[in-house]
Write a structure and sequence with these properties.
The longest helix is centred in the C-terminal third of the chain and has 33 residues. Helix 3 crosses helix 5. The protein has a 4-stranded mixed sheet with strand order 1-2-4-3. It has 10 helices and 4 strands. The chain is α+β, with helices and mostly antiparallel strands and 217 residues long. The protein binds zinc ion.
Length: 217
């Protein structure tokens, strides 16, 4: 029973964004996805990161972009239809380099390993010390929260990666503004768990603005 409580609470805390994401994909626009070949994006990725991006999937997702894989696997980038159609080239440069930052820095692999280690540790603690259900619940929340901090750090790292590789950081300022306009309010769960929304985006904007000033000097 305690194992179950821990596992459910941990996964809900750590993976709410993924659950939220797939709920949206499955629930709303089932099957709405399309693979595109885009020479401009391929050239951008190749020249900035040295990586060959051969497949881009467009889908109805609750984000502008999503990177599912890490090396040694090939990059698997998903972009929302809306971002792909409506963002300017400068904004797209930011989005695509941000997603490539997740890939190059192996974020999904690191998050997977972290989750496996934390889940194993939690189950071991329960196994060894026979803690009660309430403690199992608290442990699930704590370790879940720890995982989120890593994800949050990865978002920051991917933004720095994008910024360092961009021709013009104004694309990042505009792109982040477009993101904030698109989702002015996120779910309560996201806001409580992540504090991820405006504070994080504001910080990304600030970084880009500082970089613009730095380059002007
Ligand atoms: Zn990201």
């Amino acid at each position: 029973m305690n194992y179950f409580v821990f596992l459910v609470v941990y996964l809900l805390t750590a993976d709410w964004h993924t659950i939220d994401f797939f709920k949206y994909v499955i629930g709303k626009k089932r099957g709405m996805s399309q693979v595109v070949k885009d020479q401009w994006i391929e050239n951008l990725v190749k020249s900035k990161t040295g990586v060959q991006l051969t497949k881009i999937t467009l889908a109805e997702i609750r984000a502008f972009g999503f990177m599912a894989s890490s090396p040694p696997l090939k990059p698997s980038m998903t972009l929302s239809f809306e971002a792909y159609k409506n963002l300017s080239n400068g904004e797209k440069e930011w989005l695509i380099l941000h997603e490539m930052g997740h890939y190059v820095l192996k974020h999904s692999l690191k998050e997977l390993i972290t989750q496996v280690v934390l889940i194993s540790s939690g189950l071991l603690i329960i196994h060894l010390s026979l803690i009660d259900s309430f403690s199992a619940l608290v442990l699930g929340i704590l370790l879940g929260f720890l995982t989120l901090q890593l994800a949050k750090f990865h978002e920051h790292e991917a933004s720095i990666f994008a910024l360092n590789h961009m021709d013009d950081p104004i694309g990042m300022v505009k792109g982040v503004e477009a993101l904030m306009r698109k989702w002015p309010k996120r779910s309560i769960m996201r806001r409580i768990l992540y504090r991820w929304d405006f504070s994080m985006y504001e910080r990304q904007k600030e970084l880009a603005e500082r970089e613009i000033i730095r380059r002007e000097k």
